[in-house]
Structures are given as C-alpha cells and as structure tokens.
Amino acid sequence: MTESNDIPDTPLFDRAGSIRGYRLNKMAMALGDPANRAAFKQDEAAFLDRFDLSDAEKAAVRARDWHEMVRLGGNLFFILKISAVDPVPITQIGAAQAGMAHDDFLKHRLGKT
Fold it and tell me: Could you tell me the domains of the chain?
C-alpha cells in the first residue's frame, strides 16, 4: 500500500512546509508578546521587515489571506495570532480556509442562520 500526502486543495504542513514557513511562523509567534502586538499595530510594514519575510509572505499577511499564509508554510495555529491583533472571528478564518463566504460557512458548515 502506498501512502500519499496529496490531499486535494489542502496545503500539507510537513517538514518542508515548516522550513519554508519558518520566518512567517516566527513573526506570528512573536505576536504573543504585547509589545510586539503594539509594534505590529503601529507599523505593520516595519514589523514584517524585522522578520525578513518574502514579498509574497508580506502580501499574504497584509491581505489577511489565511489560506495563502498556510500555503506559504504558515502553521495555522501560529498565524491565528495575527487574528488576535485585528481581531478577526475564527469562523471568518475557517470560511477563508474552506473557500467560502463567511455567511455560507456559518450556514452550511456550522448550521447557523
């Protein structure tokens, strides 16, 4: 039996993803510190520059493109720290991950009307 890591439309967070997303995850984990959250809010671009993020990583963070951050190697549990700065409802992030509008996600995935 051959084991496959290919799950359609799902970025796999494996060793390669961890290495690829190291800077992005390090930046997100830094937001656990109140001083870093304040710095992020005050000048997001300067804060992102401190972690030597790629242009694609910076663009994904600025756009709050949760799916893209995960695709770039972000660990969802780490990048959720960004949502504590905005704040963004966890259901909105779930909707983005599922490729659904927030209202549709609430209705179809959580049964809320």
Answer: 15-110 (1.10.700.10)
Q: Note if the pTM is more than 0.85.
A: no
Buried b (16+ CB within 10 A) or exposed e, 44-74: eeebbeebebeeebbebbeebebbbbbbbbb
Residue 110 tokens, joined: 């959580």
Q: What is the DSSP string of the chain?
A: -------TT----SHHHHHHTHHHHHHHHHTTSHHHHHHHHH-HHHHHHTTT--HHHHHHHHHT-HHHHHHTT--HHHHHHHHTTTT--HHHHHHHHHT--HHHHHHHHH---
Cβ-in-10-Å burial (0-12, 13-18, 19+) of 79 comes to buried
For residues 19-35, give the mean pLDDT: 93
Gap between the terminal Cα atoms of the chain: 43
Distance between CA atoms of 73 and 37, rounded to whole angstroms?
A: 21
pLDDT score at 1? 42
